[in-house]
Amino acid sequence: MALREGLLEELVSTGIWLQASDIHFDPTGEAIRLIYRIHGRLIAADAVSHLPHETSRAIVSRLKVLARMQLGEQRRGQDGHVRLETARGICDLRVATVPTLAGERAVVRLFPEEHASLQLHELGMPHAMLSSLQRIVQEGAGGIVLVAGKIGAGKSTTLHALMREHVTQGASVITIEDPVERRVYAFHQMAVDDRLGWSFSECLRAALRQDPDWLMIGEIRDAETAHIAVRAGLTGHLIAATVHADDARQALLRLVELGVAPSLVAQSVRLVVWQRLAEVLCDHCQGSGCEQCAGVGVTGRKAEFQVLDRMEAQRFLLSPERVDKHDPRKPKWSDERTEVRHFVSASRLPRRVKRGVADEGLVVAESPGVFTNDRRRSGRLE
Ligand SMILES: [Zn+2]
Question: In angstroms, what is the span from residue 3 Cα to ligand 1's centroid?
Fold first, then answer.
């Protein structure tokens, strides 16, 4: 079935307008449901969920072609990337497909260009944290900056902003990511590919020979990578890495769990930044969804940061009871330097939602195969 020209661009453009991070194409047997992830919540795009099967299929096929994936391959997962021009500007898309019992599922992560230039000071970090980061760079002595948090806590955003700051000062930045989600043309981005034996640790070894000012490791999650990173940090390289952890102290323990001696962790880690994102509920409906927030219930997300400087990290790591006494489920917020600030996304949803999403170019299925911006059928999301 032929795909109406510009349909994919409209879906993406609407996603940008709604501040969606992802678009899901969920196969349900005969149809493909279209869902946006907005501020962490899954919102069925009601107006477009009536897409007939072939049309949804056609969109996924077009995505696969644009992202240089194998069109005919539906039995294995694939990843791809494409830069798309939409009514709301250029958007980088990372496309990932997997086979499911109900059919091929695709998820598209959106990286609008207008959001790509997020600067460090725009993340809402406390001043003390910013100046600690600056000091580490100025001293130039090497070491590791750990950015910790759970999945979806915005760790990559923070790391990229940190790296971008140094690129503007003329630094050479090499990143090792699995996968590379956001393309940043000022970085030298390396993608891990385990199928080729191109693992995090292999990439890291190779990157160290490329004379970088900063090395960014997408995630430290294996012993080898942890050991190389710590050794590199101790020999004068500046490393920034993310770690999956429930709080700042647990981030340090992660390295210990991976077999690095606590004393080496203490010597190499310069700063731990732990963060999480909390929903900012809509003022008007307190989360239940209303016209003011396009039914999402959430108008943005704020970041909370926890910082552990080198002295605090050392004191914790070198205290004999650290493992027994540390329980991230009971964070002692009072003794941490914690601040709550708004991420840049304190950005609100557009105010024009009263007139309906359809106004903003969301495609509405009028009858199977026909798409129009029909104002009578409001594209209200639920
Ligand atoms: Zn609301």
Answer: 34
